[in-house]
Amino acid sequence: MYGIGIIGLGVMGRRFIQGLRANPDFRIVAGYDPAPVETDVPRAASVQDLLADPAIDCIYIATPPATHEDLVAAVVGAGKAVFCEKPLTADPESARRCLETVARSGVPAAVNFPFATAPASLRMKELVETGALGDDLTAHLTLRFRTWPRGWQQGAAGWLAGPEQGGFTREVVSHFVFLAGRLFGPGELTEARIERGPLGSETRMEAVLQFARCRMTIDAAVEGEAEEFNRFEVKGSKDVAVISEWYRLTHSGGNIEPARADGHQIAEFAKLLGGQESRLATVREAAGVVDIVEGILARTSQETV
After folding, report:
1. What does the alpha-carbon distance between residue 174 and residue 286 come to, in Å, rounded to a whole number?
2. Is the predicted pLDDT of residue 304 greater than 60, yes or no?
3. What is the pTM of this model?
């Protein structure tokens, strides 16, 4: 059993705690958050106390992205494994420093992109790799939000509303950029257009990404009445497959009903800690996602690259 500490007891941290409690490979030792969050997890007085605790083998980081570089460095510097929330950082240079720090340490590390283990995305990968969808693949991502931040995020994390660390491109599009990398190989940004609201974060974003095996287009906006709409379509010369509602797969060969991937992620983290092969997103993959996402966000209205 691995002793785990948690830095950040907000929405994501508390959600992850539920998954950890369902997995016999982990024991939650303590958590830290500077805010007076209500939780039944034993509270550490500081990050340093978590790092110094010999009962803690690994740390889950669920804090805003601007804090990740320093926290990752501190955790691996203490010789503890790290599982960091996405995005890895909100800056490509910071992401590269994270990658270098982790590589030098040799400590097990991963980033929490649930599409790494979700049944819908694993099935989509199989369809792509076996040629079931055919050749000449194209992908299209459509996202709509009634408000940003989303209703369940309102008031819980003010940084999500601002341009420095927040916005839907970092928080949501990054998931699908990671998935596309897993499906289609290395990718790069070729076109982007951004419109921003009064707070500075994006209200509309259109982009084109070119991956080794596929061209992907993105159409995302804060508009409409649905709390959240997401649809990721992959089309080939033979067939089409769609991921929607995050974890629902629709395909002529059989559908997969939506189900959260937290349990799969935690099980794979246990494998990583045990020295086994793991499906989890690597820090290198996560740094590549930061490159693309921050490239999109660097665009101004009507500008292309």
Report:
1. 9
2. no
3. 0.95
